[in-house]
Specification:
about 150 residues, alpha+beta, single chain, 2 helices, SH3 type barrels
C-alpha cells in the first residue's frame, strides 16, 4: 500500500507559518500612544477585572489585541487574549476591553524581529538545501546502455 504524498505539503506549510510567526516579537513602545489598528500586548501594574463579551475575567495581568483608541485616560483594545495572575489564558474574539491608562505598566508593539527573521531564514536555507540534495536524480545518463549480453 502506497502512502499519499498530500500531507507533506500541508505539514511544510504549517511549519513555515509557525516559523514565520517566530519572526515577530513584542517591542516596548516608549511613551508614544499606539495608533488605532496596532497589534499590542498590554501589561498591567495591578491585576484587574476585564469584561470580554459576556465573560468577566478577574485578576487580568496582560492583554493582547488591536488598539481601538488611546488617549491619556483610557486605552481601548479589541482583545484577542487575556492572561490572569494565575496564568489562565482566555482567548477572546475581539471584544472591546477598556483599560485605565493609570494601571498600564507597559505597552509593547508586535514587530518583525530582524534577528529572529535571519535565524529562521538560515534554518530554512539549510533544511531546504539538505532536502534538495536528497531528492535530486543521480547524475549521468542513467541509461546503462549495454547490449545486455556478456561476451
Amino acid at each position: 500500500m502506497r502512502r499519499s504524498a498530500a500531507p507533506r505539503p500541508v505539514a511544510a506549510v504549517a511549519l513555515l507559518v509557525f516559523a514565520l510567526n517566530g519572526c515577530f516579537s513584542y517591542v516596548p513602545l516608549n511613551g508614544a500612544a499606539p495608533a488605532p489598528g496596532t497589534r499590542v500586548r498590554v501589561d498591567l501594574q495591578t491585576p484587574q477585572p476585564v469584561v470580554s463579551g459576556d465573560v468577566t475575567a478577574n485578576d487580568v495581568v496582560s492583554l493582547i489585541g488591536e488598539v481601538v483608541s488611546a488617549d491619556s485616560v483610557t486605552l481601548v483594545l479589541s482583545a484577542t487574549q487575556l492572561t490572569t495572575r494565575t496564568g489562565y489564558e482566555h482567548v477572546g474574539r475581539g471584544e472591546t476591553a477598556r483599560l485605565p491608562r493609570a494601571n498600564v505598566a507597559r505597552i509593547s508593539q508586535n514587530r518583525l524581529s530582524p534577528v529572529r527573521t535571519a535565524l529562521v531564514a538560515g534554518v530554512v536555507l539549510v533544511l531546504g538545501g539538505s532536502f534538495a540534495s536528497h531528492v535530486r536524480p543521480p547524475r549521468g545518463n542513467g541509461g546503462g546502455g549495454g547490449s545486455g549480453s556478456a561476451n
